[in-house]
Amino acid sequence: MKTMKTPTLRPLIQAAAIAACLASASPALAQQAERHYFNGTDFKGGQVVIPKSAIDNPDTKRWVIVDVHGAGGPKKNWFGYRLLKTFGEDKVIALAPVFGKGYHLSDEAASKQFIENFEWIKRNYNVHDKMFLYGHSGGAQFVHRFAFKHPEYVIGVSAHSAGSWAGIEGWGEINDAAKGIPFALSCGELDTEKAFKGEAPHGRLDWMNVFAEDLKKRGFVVRSEVIPEKGHGVPPELHAPLSLECFLLATEGKMPESGKWSGDLKQFAKE
Fold it and tell me: Does the reported pTM lie above 0.90?
């Protein structure tokens, strides 16, 4: 997939069909948000979703929240939109990139494209210098690896149901420079299958637990959660409370009420 080189994307206000698709999640937002296509044509090339409040109040600095698709790319145009309601459309702009094969390992091509997407947003909107990353399945594999490779771009990570994790198994390295990033993790209780046609060293649930324990031993701030009675297809709304808790901790220093986090949370406190 080619990346956008210049900020010439034409703004497109979603049509009635898009509003209908998104109505169940957030009717008002579906009618008011503006989006930019990276390929100038449709969401399959990735998109940036701009809430109306961001258009009306351009002087308000916002966080870029990133919604990364799973294997096979996004099947619907609500990627990015679905996170705005969770995080608060008065605080964020959503980026929904689209990557090619191999992206889950945060290869050089995907990382380069991702940074270029973010730099375009920075040139055109009033946003902070770091992003909050969310991903499920293949998207979870990408976001946590990108955070280790480029912690300077990341404020927090919400990664769910990944088929592989960086660390002691040799599927990427954990970078101690990312210790200032909180990691929120989850996996379905029934999501025990081994990814990559059974070639992964652990099932998804077991590997998340291995990864979480590795982070804790290294002194990372982390919370891991098992979603009861769910397999691999956990609905995003079940991740929402955990993702929001991580986001508020990372961006506002709001201490979680759950008491389920490990590590030095006080480093995020705002004076």
Answer: no
Q: Which residues contact 29 (CB under 8 A, 6 or more apart)?
A: 22, 51, 81, 84, 85, 89
Other beta carbons less than 10 A from residue 31's beta carbon: 15
**Cβ-based neighbours of 213, under 8 Å, separated by 6 or more:** none
pLDDT digits (tens, 9 = 90+) for 208-227: 999 999 999 999 999 999 99
Rounded CA separation 184/243 (Å):
7
- Residue 130's identity, in one-letter code, is K
Residues near 169 by beta carbon (within 8 Å), at least 6 away in sequence: 201, 202, 207, 210
Confirm whether 5 is domain-assigned. Answer: no
Q: Domain of 227: which CATH number?
A: 3.40.50.1820
Query: What pLDDT digit, counting tens, does each position of 162-205 carry?
Result: 999 999 778 899 999 999 999 999 999 999 999 999 999 999 99
3-state helix, strand, coil in the chain (%, to 5): 40, 20, 40
Q: 183 lies in which domain range?
A: 11-167+175-252
Residue 9 CA to residue 190 CA, distance in Å, equals 42
Q: Report the number of distinct structural domains present in the chain.
A: 1
pLDDT at res. 85: 86
The answer to whether residues 187 and 177 touch, using CB atoms and an 8 Å cutoff, is no
Backbone angles phi, psi at 13, to 5 degrees: -85, 130
98 inside domain: yes
